[in-house]
């Protein structure tokens, strides 16, 4: 019969500093910050007070393991956090953070080259092609039935 090890905490062979990984982020398992993500604790320490109620912490380099204060941005809401990610995708795709993504061809372009099509940005040529194709297929459906 095997005996159970009495080593706990830092003496245990599998000790990870009182933290565990959950959905790509380090979470405190013990101590005063139990249950809080490590990046939130670092942001609160840098801010000098707890985060506001709906605040979200953004990793600038998108690496959830990099919790350096210089890599964290405190966003006032999830909507602002989503806007940061949208602008980061546009910047990576075409070099312009204010570019919009076409709803039809999925390409990025300047805002003045796009139009709002059913609430979504699209190139004029993409919207026109969609309407041409839709009319063509509607005619074909009418002939076949």
Strand order within the widest sheet?
Answer: 1-2
| Molecular shape | elongated
Cα separation of the termini: 78 Å
Total beta-strand segments? 8
Question: How would you characterize the largest beta sheet?
Answer: 2 strands, antiparallel
Oligomer class:
single chain
Report the sheet-strand fraction: 15-25%
Outline the low-pLDDT stretches: none
- How would you spell out the order of helices and strands? EEHEEHEEEEH
**What is the tally of helical segments?**
3
The overall average pLDDT, rounded, is: 86
| Helix percentage | 25-40%
Structural class: alpha+beta
Radius of gyration: 25 Å
Notes on the structure:
With 145 residues, the chain is α+β, with helices and mostly antiparallel strands. It has three helices and eight strands, in the order E-E-H-E-E-H-E-E-E-E-H. It has helices at 38-47, 78-94, 124-144; strands at residues 19-22, 25-28, 56-59, 72-75, 100-101, 108-109, 114-117, 120-123. The model has no long low-confidence stretch (mean pLDDT 86).
């Amino acid at each position: 019969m095997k005996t159970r090890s009495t080593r706990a905490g830092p003496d245990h062979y599998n000790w990870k500093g009182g933290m565990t990984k959950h959905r790509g982020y380090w979470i405190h398992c013990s101590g005063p910050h139990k249950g809080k993500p490590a990046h939130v604790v670092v942001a609160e320490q840098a801010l000098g007070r707890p985060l506001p109620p709906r605040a979200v912490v953004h990793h600038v380099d998108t690496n959830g393991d990099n919790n350096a204060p210089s890599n964290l941005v405190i966003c006032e809401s999830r909507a602002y956090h989503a806007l940061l990610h949208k602008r980061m995708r546009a910047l990576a795709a075409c070099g312009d953070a204010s570019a919009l993504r076409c709803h039809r061809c999925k390409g990025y372009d300047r805002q003045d080259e796009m139009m709002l099509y059913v609430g979504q940005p699209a190139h004029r040529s993409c919207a026109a092609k969609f309407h041409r194709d839709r009319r063509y297929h509607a005619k074909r459906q009418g002939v076949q039935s």
